[in-house]
Amino acid sequence: MRTHTTRRLLGALAVLATLSLTTTACGADAPDAGAGSGGPKDVAAALEKGGKVTVWAWEPTLKKVAEDFEKKYPKVDIELVNAGTGDKQYTALQNAIAAGNGAPDVAQIEYYALGQFTAAKSVEDLFPYGAQKYGTSFTPGPWNAVSRGGGIFALPMDSGPMAFFYNKKVFDKHGIEVPTTWDEYVEAARTLHKADPKIFITNDTGDAGATTSLIWQAGGRPYYTDGTDVTVNFADKGTQKYTATWQKLLDEKLLAPVSSWSDAWYKGLADGSIATLSIGAWMPANLTSGVASASGDWRVAPLPQWEKGDKTSAENGGSSLAVPKAAKNKELAYAFTEFATTGAGASTRVAQGAFPAARADLESKAFLDAKFPYFGGQQANRIFAESARNVGENWSYLPFQVYANSVFNDTVGKAYVSSTQLDDGLKAWQDASVKYGNDQGFTVNK
């Protein structure tokens, strides 16, 4: 296996190159294994013949998976390439597709961005390869993200069911109970900041992913797509629950004006001045490596609820493996995608710290019973697994979500730095998304 890496890039999303809505040439269209000839037989034959599979991904756990795949199938060479993180890779991928050469055989694509590639018909439908048999193998959130219109356009690699991470040391010092509702969360924010003006309940300078995840949990469903017909509407009741609560935190200056993943953010998590995070279940590894000095201070709890007694959660982050239509070795590409996301490959990644999307790993005793020294020996995976089971249904992203997220700070972001209200910021975001979608050939309603 050969591995090429580039510097991991974090930061604001860049605008992805415009995606064409025209259909490109279809790839393998053989029937499922159970149907008789075709698909799986072609995959088996491809594995026997061998060849090279180029995989564009930034996820480090895939290195061991690739090594294991090559041991099992010695005629196959997996070439891992880090073409950039997130939007950097998406731009490179789209450029390669547009140029007609240089595209990988497999690409890591986050769930929020996958729709932009399926709309452009630039990734393979994996249904003909037999991918539909995994419909019950993954948790609902990730499977819903890769399936649309009867097609399966990727296989889930990991997931990000949300949980509430809190600094127990800070909470205990100030007599704060772990909030079970967002109203209690606001009260905790007030109490903490009054007790020590240097302490904030959390940080937030405007983040599209965090905002849409909390709207998702609140029952908001602002996006709907049916082919090229798209609806964007932030006036629903779920969204209003979110904005009413978050506006209080903004108005009362109870949110630390610190950007996530910055040096100041890590410092705040370490010294307790940022007391909580509502984020995906992939966060423990980041705390362990980036905030090591606070080991033992932090704990995990279920996400606060919008209605007392509820157990609804949402996803925050997570990614899939897709096969571009421009792939040269599609059968081999599917074989690796299947291996990396199911069975032994998935378990290998979980053992290295990835959060599972597969039910088998999520429900295993070893996973559920694992104790986290960072969280004082807490069996945090039990909370994460419960969250995964309770992710709200029927959420979808825009087929041009990458672009929408890139203009979030130009619209909603104004509510964090001026007198603009969140509702007005979301309306501006909606209008910008509608205009862009219509310009790209969609029929967008609001």
What's the topology here?
Elements (H helix, E strand, L loop, with lengths): L1 E3 L34 H11 L1 E6 L5 H11 L3 E6 L5 H13 L6 E5 H9 L20 H7 E2 L2 E2 L2 E2 L5 E6 H6 L8 H14 L6 E2 L4 H10 L5 E4 L2 E4 L4 H15 L3 E2 L6 H9 L4 E5 L2 H8 L7 E4 L17 E4 L7 H12 L1 H9 L7 H4 L2 H5 L10 H10 L11 H6 L1 H4 L10 H18 L3 E3 L1
Parallel strand pairs: 1-3, 2-3, 2-4, 9-12, 11-16
Antiparallel strand pairs: 4-15, 5-6, 7-15, 8-13, 8-14, 10-11
Please give a handful of descriptors for the protein shown:
three-stranded antiparallel β-sheet, 16 strands, disordered N terminus, alpha/beta, D-Maltodextrin-Binding Protein, domain 2, six-stranded mixed β-sheet, globular, 446 residues, 19 helices
Major beta sheet, strand line-up: 1-3-2-4-15-7
Which class of the largest domain in CATH terms? Alpha Beta
Strand count, sense and barrel status of the largest sheet are:
6 strands, mixed
Instruction: Give the rounded overall mean pLDDT.
Output: 89
Low-confidence stretches: 2-39
Q: Could you give a short description of this structure?
A:
The chain contains 19 helices and 16 strands. The protein starts with a strand and ends with a strand. The chain has about 450 residues and is an alpha/beta fold.
Explain the overall architecture.
The protein is α/β, with parallel strands linked by helices and 446 residues long. The protein has two domains: 2-159 and 318-362, D-Maltodextrin-Binding Protein, domain 2 (3-Layer(aba) Sandwich), CATH 3.40.190; 162-314 and 383-445, Periplasmic binding protein-like II (D-Maltodextrin-Binding Protein, domain 2), CATH 3.40.190.10. Helix content is 41%, strand content 13%. It contains 19 helices and 16 strands. It has helices at 39-49, 62-72, 87-99, 111-119, 140-146, 168-173, 182-195, 208-217, 237-251, 263-271, 283-290, 330-341, 343-351, 359-362, 365-369, 380-389, 401-406, 408-411, 422-439, and strands at residues 2-4, 51-56, 76-81, 106-110, 147-148, 151-152, 155-156, 162-167, 202-203, 223-226, 229-232, 255-256, 276-280, 298-301, 319-322, 443-445. It has a six-stranded mixed beta sheet with strand order 1-3-2-4-15-7, sandwiched between helices. It has a three-stranded antiparallel beta sheet with strand order 13-8-14. A hairpin with a 2-residue loop joins strand 5 and strand 6 (151-152). Mean pLDDT is 89; it is low at 2-39.
